[in-house]
Design brief:
Largest sheet of chain B: 5 strands, mixed
Radius of gyration of chain A: 16 Å
CATH architecture of chain A: Alpha-Beta Complex
Number of domains of chain B: 1
Distance between the termini of chain A: 35 Å
Strand order of the largest sheet of chain B: 2-1-7-4-5
Largest interface: A-B, 28 and 15 residues
Structural class of chain B: alpha+beta
CATH topology of chain A: Aldehyde Oxidoreductase, domain 3
Order of helices and strands of chain A: EHEEEHEEHEE
Number of strands of chain B: 7
CATH class of chain A: Alpha Beta
Distance between the termini of chain B: 37 Å
CATH class of chain B: Alpha Beta
CATH architecture of chain B: Roll
Largest sheet of chain A: 8 strands, mixed
Number of strands of chain A: 8
Oligomer: heterodimer
Shape of chain B: globular
Strand content of chain B: 35-45%
Number of helices of chain B: 2
Chain lengths: 148, 79
């Protein structure tokens, strides 16, 4: 069981498996005060850029600052929304197209809080956490991704 | 004072190193630091980056007056 104040590590090496997500959902069946979950999954997209297809993204981060930012964002979300619990996982290292690189999971008594909080978390993460992504093409060339 | 510089993401391709220490005799603001870095690495001029001091983003008028960790951060791409 997590509590509001415990700092949690967000980064995981490699892709986030569907099994991990399923297991995480399963762990909430004992929390019967929850009436609504919302989940956001970020998946690596095989974009075509100048005729070349993205094969995967290699994620790096300014890790200490990023973990601190994740912590601040979590605290802000607990402050702003009436949540029962919240989980955030972000991948580091090479992630193939089609694999999951971000897992945000919010739970509350009712749907509005869970859904609003999930959206808030994803937008905050994309805007404020120092994570960097190198989009790798089939021929090993690459370009640096920028969030829009 | 010692500036403990960390370069992240694509910035490393411009500097060729991911961290280095620069000794500075004088206080300087981040605008001054940008000028110093642009002289040291002329190709940085075409890069967009933010600066974090001791892991907090700061604006260009922020004054560095003591030894600290400074990170040069290109645009974020999380999620």
């Amino acid at each position: 069981m997590e509590t509001k104040k415990k700092p949690k590590k967000v980064f995981v090496q490699g892709a986030i498996s569907p099994e991990k997500i399923a297991t995480s959902i399963g762990h909430h069946q004992v929390k019967t005060n929850i009436g609504a979950h919302d989940i956001f999954l970020g998946q690596v997209r095989a974009d075509e850029i100048d005729g070349k297809i993205v094969q995967g993204i290699d994620y790096t981060a300014y890790e200490d600052m990023a973990e601190q930012k994740f912590h601040e964002i979590r605290e802000a979300a607990f402050e702003k929304f009436d949540l029962t619990c919240m989980h955030i996982y972000h991948s580091l290292g090479p992630i193939k197209a089609g694999e999951i690189c971000l897992f945000v999971f919010t739970s509350s008594k009712h749907r509005a809080m869970a859904m609003d909080a999930c959206r808030f978390l994803v937008e905050e993460i994309k805007a404020n956490v120092p994570v960097f992504g190198k989009e790798i093409f089939e021929d090993e060339s690459y370009q640096w991704k920028v969030n829009s | 004072m010692m500036l403990d510089l960390k370069y992240l993401g694509r910035i490393v391709e411009v500097t060729g190193v991911s961290n280095e220490q620069i000794e500075s005799a004088n206080k300087m603001d981040l605008k001054g630091l940008r000028e110093l870095l642009n002289q040291r690495y002329p190709n940085l001029k075409s890069e967009s980056f933010q600066i974090a001091v001791n892991q907090e983003l700061k604006s260009d008028d922020y004054l560095i007056d003591r030894t600290c960790e400074i990170a040069i951060l290109p645009p974020f791409a999380g999620g």
